[in-house]
Amino acid sequence: MEVLIFLIVLYLLLSLSMVKLFEKAGVPGWKALVPGLAAVEWCKLVGRKPAYAAWLLFPIVNIFIYAGLCIDLARSFGRHSFWEAALAVVYAPILYYLIGRDNKAKYNGPILEQEREFHRQYAEAKAKDDKAALRRLEANNVFKKSPLREWVEAIIFAVFAAAFIRMFLIEAFVIPTSSMEGSLKVGDYLFVSKAHYGIRTPMTVLQFPLIHNRFSQQSNGLLARESYLREPSLPYFRLPALEAIDRNEPVVFNFPAGDSVIITPGRTYDVYQWRREMDMLRRLNRPLPPMPPVVVRPIDKKDHYIKRCVAVAGDSLRIRDGQVYINGQPAKNPQHMQFAYYIRSESGMLNLRKLEEIGVSLNDAIPVELPNGELRRYYNLDAEQVAKVKSWGPGIVLERFEPGARPGYVFPNDAAQYGHWTVDNFGPIFIPKKGATVELTPASLPFYERIIRVYEGHQLEVRNGKYLIDGQETSTYTFQQNYYWMMGDNRHNSEDSRIWGYVPEDHVVGKPLFIFFSTKNANLREGIRWNRLFRSANQM
């Protein structure tokens, strides 16, 4: 609401500030106060056709159109300096007010027509080699810019254009963790389309260009701060999608549980992850680190995650022995889906080099301490790699990792009712769909409480066994948006929806297109994976 008021006030001030300018240009001032008509007259004053005003109705494009019109109107009154152009873009009403109250300021005619005429005369004089005419034109050239200004404007435009493309169309994304191995690997650089699932307009207004949410991952220091201001902000809005999110597609989204995070040099934890880490350290009788401050982030500034969409809104999902079932039917498994295996050789030491040669990541091994104190390392293998390891001979034994129950760890993080669920044996659960209604009960509330409170912004109370939403007693809840279930292909080494739950539609960022660069283990020194360049992210 605050942003809407701000925009209304901005429009009113802009209209009022243009009244004097219109009058100086011989146009009745009242026309500046009429929406639509003001835009048409504005275009005519700078030398544009009246139909050009229609571009102001097109989202995103209108940003550029508005900025250009603001600058050109100022130039039509003889204001050509860099700072005046900058002020026209940042807050035109101030500049227009100053021009309007300046008795010496006068309208010099449509600047774009003057500019076209100047270049025509200059080209004609140059073609005739008329040195006198060239000197005269250059002496009166108000369009000429200094080399420094040209450099500054070129840099600003390049940054603005790059930020615009990154914000609305395509953004580069690097795979930071092994949760999507062996489909998408650590060190893969992807282009992500923001148009396929509908362009989401920015919610955070004031932000440093080309930086997502933080200047530095360090927890202290000059750059250890967020790269944006939380206020003012805009409400969620998404343009029509080119296609719907389908099952089995990789999707980039804002981490749903990442609204309250703890920043450390190694990684960013949501507060629930941090608590689980501290609980584990307590069980191991290890010292606890001091708790860093909690950083609160808006939706579009939460960390980016990439997972595979396993279930869409309206689906029923369950997992049995690692196999996902959607609506009662076995789901199609990713070609390179991985599980963790303990591999031992009865004839001696395991040859780790042979594992590496078939594409097994040694860095991704999971250490597991058994009750007897034995420390085992589990390696993540897909079905093809399992077959290759078995072909090495009868002396090779593979034991698949069987995740045990960790009460409170698996979604819905309710140890009392669902503490027996594991990442391999889970559900059934319903994936919320916009317009669908569910009964609120003690058994269902853990699944939907965060949706009601956080994702859809309602006040929820449980009082004497009754449910109150925004103060009204109810026994049901109707969802206001669609939700998705995202899982990593590295099934035993991925924190995904099985841990933190549903992904709301307003958190969806975009669709990965293709890999444009890839380094081994995200380290250029280890080499480039040439065979992965320009491969489709949807076919890995």
What does this structure look like?
- By secondary structure, the protein is of the alpha+beta class.
- Helices cover 30% and strands 20% of the residues.
- It is built from 13 helices and 23 strands.
- α2 packs across α3 (61-76), α3 crosses α4 (82-101) and α5 (111-128) packs antiparallel against α6.
- The relative contact order is 0.11.
List keywords for this structure.
13 helices, alpha+beta, 23 strands, four-stranded antiparallel β-sheet, seven-stranded antiparallel β-sheet, 540 residues
Query: What's the main sheet like?
Result: 7 strands, antiparallel
Return Rg in Å: 30 Å
Q: Distance N terminus to C terminus? A: 44 Å
Number of helices: 13
Task: Reconstruct the topology from this structure.
Layout: H1 2-24, H2 37-46, H3 61-76, H4 82-101, H5 111-128, H6 131-139, H7 147-168, E1 170-174, E2 188-193, E3 250-254, E4 260-263, E5 268-270, H8 271-283, E6 294-296, E7 304-311, E8 316-320, E9 323-326, E10 329-330, E11 339-345, H9 352-357, E12 366-369, E13 375-381, H10 383-390, E14 396-400, H11 415-418, E15 426-430, E16 437-439, H12 445-455, E17 460-463, E18 466-469, E19 472-474, E20 476-478, E21 483-487, H13 497-500, E22 503-504, E23 508-518
Antiparallel strand pairs: 1-2, 2-23, 3-7, 3-23, 4-5, 4-6, 7-21, 8-9, 8-15, 9-10, 11-13, 11-14, 12-13, 16-20, 17-18, 18-19, 21-22
